[in-house]
Structures are given as structure tokens and as C-alpha cells.
Amino acid sequence: MRPLSVFATGLALAACSGGSDTPEPPSASAAIATAVADQSLPTETYVSPMARFDLTLPGVWKGRYIAEEKNDTTAGAHTGVEFKFVPDSGSKAPSFTLMTVRIFSRAAWEKSKNLTSGPIGSVLAERGDDVFALSLPRENPYNPGTPEAIMYDRLIISIAQGGQQVHLTLR
After folding, report:
1. Secondary structure (3-state) at 94
2. In which element (H, E) is residue 149 found?
3. Edge-to-edge strand ranges of the sheet holding 167-170
4. Digits of tens for pLDDT over the chain (171 positions)?
5. What is the per-residue DSSP string for 119-147?
6. R_g over Cα of the chain
7. Which of 67, 84, 155, 160 could form an S-S bond across to 95 if both were Cys, CB 3.0 to 4.6 Å?
């Protein structure tokens, strides 16, 4: 596994090769260049039936994720929408989480800011007493250089290039 630091609205979002002195595989550089180019692609929109929001993502995400809405008590949240990576159809690789949108009460969100492990996410929107926060993984869970690792990096990088590329609209 490679560390993945991300920076979007207070989170670091750039893929890195880890702590070793070995050079980054050329494929990771290609993933970054491709993710930058992806910014001109159409967008993908996820419509949340349970939490009543729309989430706009870069078009490169189309067909590359599945979303699951569920009760989520992580750090005091009450609802979560987990976005999982979908490997290519011929791959036997497991599906890992790309990001999670969690919904907190304002009090739970304030309390979560004091976690010793650091912030649980970044605020995307607020509605009444609800705070919608984006949580990203701390590392790429796939082996470096694999097609899954390259696409996973591409998706994560695509939401950070040129500023935050994830937009949440409340309904």
C-alpha cells in the first residue's frame, strides 16, 4: 500500500510513492498528467435518495464507483454515503473506499474536530443542524504500479486538481 495524501478544502489530495527512496513509477506520473487533463471532461452527478443532496464529480468517475448510503456513527456522524472504487470487470481486485460523505449534527461535528487522529473530513455544506463532510483515504490500498492503483490515484487526484472538484448541492 502507498500513502495517499490529499488536499481539497483542508485535506491533502496528491498521490505519493511512500517513504522509500525508490523513484516513483512512471505510471503514477502519467496518472497525475491524465487527471489534470480530465478536468475538461463532462461531470458525473450522484443523486442521494436518502440524504437529499446531489454530488458533482469529475467525469472520469463515471462507471468507476458505487455508492452505498447507510447509518454511519464514525466520529459521531449519523449518516454516510461511501463511494467505493470499481476495478475493471476482468480484475479480481477488491473494491476499496475512495471517499465518504458523512452527515453530522453540528454538536457532533464540533466534537469531532477534537479527535487526536486529526480532522475526520472537510465541510462541504451545512443545512439546519446538519454538517456534510468529505472524508478521504489516507493511502492508496492497491499495490503500486497495478492498474487498480493507477486508476484509484487518477480518481482521487481528479477531485483535487485546480481546486476542489467535488460540489455538493442540497435539495
Report:
1. coil
2. helix 147-158
3. 43-48, 53-58, 167-170
4. 554 433 333 343 333 333 344 445 555 566 555 555 545 568 999 999 999 999 999 999 999 999 999 999 999 999 999 999 999 988 999 999 999 999 999 999 999 988 888 788 999 999 999 999 999 999 999 999 999 999 999 999 998 776 668 999 999
5. -S-EEEEEETTEEEEEE--SEE-SPTTSH
6. 16
7. 84
Asked if 87 contacts 149 with a C-beta cutoff of 8 angstroms, the reply is: no
Question: Under a CB-based contact definition with an 8 Å cutoff, are residues 150 and 31 in contact?
Answer: yes
DSSP label of 88? -
Residue holding cell 486508476? 151
Q: What is the pairing mode between strands 167-170 and 97-105?
A: unpaired
One-letter amino acid identity for 135?
A: S
Q: Extract the C-alpha cell encoding 31.
A: 496518472
Cα distances (Å, whole numbers) of residue 139 to 25, 66, 102: 16, 19, 19
Kindly compute the dihedral angle of the four CA atoms of residues 23, 27, 30, 35, in this order, to the nearest 10 degrees: -110
Provide the whole-model pTM: 0.76
- If you ran DSSP here, which 8-state letter would residue 95 be given? P
SS3 29: helix
How far is the CA of 5 from the CAs of 15, 29, 53, 135, 141, in angstroms? Answer: 6, 15, 26, 12, 12
